[in-house]
Amino acid sequence: MSKPRRVPNLAGNSVAIFRESVRAEETWLQYERHFVRFLQWLGFENNADTFLEKAKRDKKSAESKIIDYVSFQKERVRRGEISETTVANFRKPVKLFLEMNDVKLNWLKINKTLPPMRRHANDRAPTVEEIRKIINYPDMRVETIALTMASSGIRVGAWNYLRLRDIKAIERDGKVIACRMRIYTGTPEEYSTFMTPEAYASLQRYLRYRELHGEQLTPDSPLLRNMFNTSQPIVNWKGEASNPEPLKHSGVKRLIERVLWRYGFRTEKKRRHEFAIDHGFRKFFKTRAEQVMRPINVEWIMGHSTGISDSYYRPTENELLEDYLKAVPLLTVSEVEEVRQKSEAEKKQFEERLNRIEASVGLLVSQKAEQLLSLAEIRRRGTSR
User: Fold this and answer.
1) What is the pLDDT of residues 178-219, one digit of tens each?
2) Which residues make Cβ contacts (< 8 Å) with residue 364, sequence separation at least 6?
3) 0.90 surpassed by pTM
4) CATH code linked to domain 128-333
């Protein structure tokens, strides 16, 4: 697989206010990349000031250029290079940049030129069998990534922020029943979700492995880290166990992509794949959790906005936990767990059948006893005569 082409950083005094308007780092990187490509298409390289000056002097010309750029992207849609949704993503940073620099265009007219968008993407959730295959990959991080994302519904960008302090096991009667996760800690997007005991156990095995090779874990340690040398340490080398570097979302994506190619889930190079890393695990979580949980709670612990309900619906963490616990069996992918659940279901069915048989036998015994009492009463009366 070829590495994505690096895009130069935006240049110009007008960029500062634009950058301040985008809170999430991952969103900014996407906006910057799309905006630079727009500037390069115009022939301005990565200089935002040049575009801004021209847009201020001639707004009609700026609108025309943006519409031409939309048409250029629509042609790419027709060739199958990008999706309809991506065209709107190219427009968003241009609109935000101009608005933050006090340039108002007729965006209603520009938006009318956008292609109609599908109501859903052409990707899907992985199956339980596929996740089982993925977690067998030799790199311990893969199991932790897959089980955590599938059981919590977090976005791949959340790995940029996750530290050990964001993880807290929840126990009952000395047994871990779930694990609470704080996502995007310290940002306006902060929220809580949960992971299954299975995912938590995988994470603990991975952390113990890191400690075994000399890493000193602290609350600020990254949940995922770079590869490190497990034999002879090299002093001050970034691959040394005691010198961890966080594995961010781009590294997570590359790692999982390597697994998908290795196991044949991907067989040809294209922009969009059926099993998308960004959304595949989230779809798995949402699809299975909604079978037993309240849909609004599923949206809440996925970090989604619930519209007007955001202002009025405020479930407690305990309420979310109790609802989440209903979904734990469906979010657990272990074959051992599946056998255990099947065994428990069969045991329950057996016990129910046994109870019905015992009830039937009890009824028959009671009826027989009544018959014997009646017969004895008849004989007693006959003898007394």
Assistant:
1) 999 999 998 878 899 999 999 999 999 999 999 998 899 999
2) none
3) no
4) 1.10.443.10
